[in-house]
Amino acid sequence: MEQLTIIPPRSGTAFVLRKGQRLKVVDIEGKQVSDFVCYNLADKAEYLSSGRTIDYAETIFLTKGHPFYSNRSNIMFELVEDTVGRHDFLLTPCSADTFRIIYGHTHPHRGCFGNLCEALKEYGISPDAIPICFNIFMHVTVDGETGRIDVLPPKSKAGDYVVLEAKTDLLIGMTACSAEMSNNYAFKPIGYQILT
């Protein structure tokens, strides 16, 4: 496999992606989610918007060919390659509260939210400025009648990937997700590579 930067299990990172660069995100071992968020590098009050992206795409199943919009309705990036075809843009990043409320943990892990807070802090991003993430490889189903959601094991296999192309200079935050259900109850690394 090409030279990848590795995000260790249950951790996160942040970095800059310039306009025109492509970011490849790889599920190294399979069935591992990566929570992804981005901000306009020039004005970090502009961030990736789940609501606007879903609204304009008219689908919750975002894949190759879809542009992803900011809270100001500007295109931040486009998904240009996708070997899986199923990701989630509905659910919030897992957090200590997730593990306390859903899993009943008394000493919960800080989760993707905590990992993103830590990684993005040096760029001036506060916890309240972290929105719903694009949960790459996450498999969420929605019952069309009741609206019930279910988190199922990701469809991604070892080596599956997505490639996104930045449409402006971006600050990226990414994780190797920490939630049991999201990753088929095993915590694995995520790889990424910036393609120019």
Helical stretch count?
3
Shape: globular
First-to-last CA distance: 18 Å
Q: Largest beta sheet: what is the strand line-up?
A: 1-13-3-11-7-6
Kindly state the percentage of residues in helix.
Answer: 10-25%
- How are helices and strands ordered from N to C? EEEEEHEEHHEEEEEE
Radius of gyration: 15 Å
What percentage of amino acids are in beta strands? 35-45%
- Using DSSP, what is the number of strands? 13
Structure explained in plain terms:
It contains three helices and 13 strands; from the N terminus they run E-E-E-E-E-H-E-E-H-H-E-E-E-E-E-E. The radius of gyration is 15 Å and the shape is globular. The strands form three sheets. Strands 1-13-3-11-7-6 form a six-stranded antiparallel sheet. The longest helix is centred in the middle third of the chain and has 10 residues, at 111-120. Helices cover 12% and strands 36% of the residues. A hairpin with a 2-residue loop joins strand 4 and strand 5 (43-47). It is mainly beta and 196 residues long. The chain has helices at 50-57, 96-101, 111-120; strands spanning 5-7, 11-17, 22-27, 34-40, 43-47, 67-69, 75-82, 134-136, 139-142, 149-152, 160-166, 170-176, 190-195.
Blueprint of the fold:
Elements: E1 5-7, E2 11-17, E3 22-27, E4 34-40, E5 43-47, H1 50-57, E6 67-69, E7 75-82, H2 96-101, H3 111-120, E8 134-136, E9 139-142, E10 149-152, E11 160-166, E12 170-176, E13 190-195
Antiparallel strand pairs: 1-13, 2-12, 3-11, 3-13, 4-5, 4-8, 4-12, 6-7, 7-11, 9-10
Condensed summary:
By secondary structure, the protein is mainly β.
